[in-house]
Amino acid sequence: LTSELYPSVKRNPNYKKLANEDIQFFQSILTENEILQANDKEDLAFYNEDWMRKYRGQSKIVLKPKSVEKISQILKYCNEQKIAVVPQGGNTGLVGGSVPVFDEVVLSVSNLNEIRNFDPVSGILKCDAGVILENADNFLAEHGYIFPLDLGAKGSCHVGGVVACNAGGLRLLRYGSLHGSVLGLEVVLPNGDILNSMHSLRKDNTGYDLKQLFIGSEGTIGIITGVSILTPPRPKAFNVSFLAVNSYEDVQKVFVKAKKELLEILSAFEFMDDKSQQLTKHHLAGVPHPFEESYPFYILIETSGSNKDHDDEKLEKFLESAMEDGLVVDGVVAQDETELRNLWQWRELIPESSQCQGGVYKYDVSLPLKHLYSLVEAANARLSEAALLGDAPKPVIQAVGYGHVGDGNLHLNVAVREYNKQVEKALEPFVYEFVSSKNGSISAEHGLGFQKKNYIGYTKNPQEIKMIKDLKTHFDPNGILNPYKYI
Ligand code: FAD
Ligand code: MLT
Ligand code: ZN
């Protein structure tokens, strides 16, 4: 079996090709509703293709077990038979990690979707891995709590999926990384053993912190089936302001000022360049942008706290002074919930706007703040030199920059009319070399997946890579989980 999408990657012949006896085994433990097989009516495209429509596998079978025990039986069998398996959550990952490369079995955890327990005193939530993030957050809202992570894919991605990717999202600035808020995990290991580590302790220094290994492991060493997470009280008051600034220098200055002056109520600080807004305007044809005029950069600031009057006053003072200083040249503040959502959409819909023109090359990097935007300028210069950027028939529509300034995380998106090897060659390894030269990370939050597995060396040194490989071999000696990816 070969893939026309990935001519240089060969199917590993050590993996068994599914035979009738394997399907019979799956049928012996799963009900009809828990197995999808490719046939005349069902092509399994949803499970084989990723959100960006960039990566496509050829799996003929999707298993959707309804219990942890069934996952354990499936993995034990696949491990013995050397059948490769791709764990899948909401399939919103952005590095090609969630879909098969060849004929791997897709194991979706979407049928494990129950809230297990919530303690309203500590704020600790225990739930199945397949609970959709937005559902978890809506459940918490009823109890006055909030999920400590928010991102544009919340309506589809799973709690287990975000943990498997160690997703960052829009409020990491406030609530920190999942490495801090996840208190415990339940994981089915490749040999079928169930690791029950669903702790609910904030402090526990008895031995290695095993759960940390699985946070960000992208389905390569175990399938996460349960998550125990500390959730904070839900803020009563939210404010969002959308600001225009003249330079990236000024974005940094406003960030420093916002940290100092908004301090404990600052919950998001996002930036967008003008090109990203042009793409989003095009996508949202007819929806008015917060500003009639265009400016080089925009900032979205969210505050959240417990007292609206207090927060309003603080934000107003901050904005007045930022305008007096000449840092902010224009600004709007949402007056109600609808306006708040409208302002957020100009940030949250950038990914969709850059993807839907035909395709998108995405780079999600950490860089020292002073160098953050220079990558977008360098990428644009490179695409221009290569005569790839411009009006049709040139393949590149726009190279845009936006991201989580508060976390030193830039998203460089290159929107294309269709996926094109010439564009890819111009950008890779160019982008990774650039990031490495500034001591950044080639993956701030989306992970390695299939896209970056050959590039990990731009961020990790040989000793670190060896240790990661040793850990993979320790947990998954037959390499059945999510092959061809990560490392
Ligand atoms: P999937 O896409 O199904 O899987 C992702 C990876 O995790 C795969 O390698 C898969 O094998 C593995 N996996 C999934 N579930 C499990 C499990 N239960 N056990 C073991 N492995 C598993 N990311 C950010 O960090 N910040 C953002 O702001 C952000 N915004 C986004 C906005 C949009 C519109 C989209 C489409 C994506 C965004 N992402 C963001 C990407 C982010 O990685 C995913 O949305 C999310 O983390 C993946 O969750 P999922 O359930 O869809 O997992
Ligand atoms: C975001 O911050 O919007 C996400 O990480 C998704 C993306 O960049 O596409
Ligand atoms: Zn992001």
TrEMBL record:
SUPFAM superfamilies: FAD-binding/transporter-associated domain-like (SSF56176), FAD-linked oxidases, C-terminal domain (SSF55103). It is an enzyme of class 1 (oxidoreductase). It is found in: Mitochondrion. It catalyses: (R)-malate + A = oxaloacetate + AH2; (R)-2-hydroxyglutarate + pyruvate = (R)-lactate + 2-oxoglutarate; (R)-lactate + 2 Fe(III)-[cytochrome c] = 2 Fe(II)-[cytochrome c] + pyruvate + 2 H(+). It comes from the Eukaryota. Its cofactor is FAD. One of its GO terms (biological process) is lactate metabolic process. Keywords: FAD, Flavoprotein, Metal-binding, Mitochondrion, Oxidoreductase, Transit peptide, Zinc. Its EC number is 1.1.99.39, 1.1.99.40. GO terms for cellular component: mitochondrion. GO terms for molecular function: (R)-2-hydroxyglutarate dehydrogenase activity; D-lactate dehydrogenase (cytochrome) activity; FAD binding; metal ion binding. Its main location: mitochondrion. Signal peptide: none annotated. Residues 55-234 form the FAD-binding PCMH-type domain. Belongs to the FAD-binding oxidoreductase/transferase type 4 family. Catalyzes the oxidation of D-2-hydroxyglutarate (D-2-HG) to alpha-ketoglutarate. Also catalyzes the oxidation of other D-2-hydroxyacids, such as D-malate (D-MAL) and D-lactate (D-LAC). Exhibits high activities towards D-2-HG and D-MAL but a very weak activity towards D-LAC. This is D-2-hydroxyglutarate dehydrogenase, mitochondrial. It comes from Zygotorulaspora mrakii.
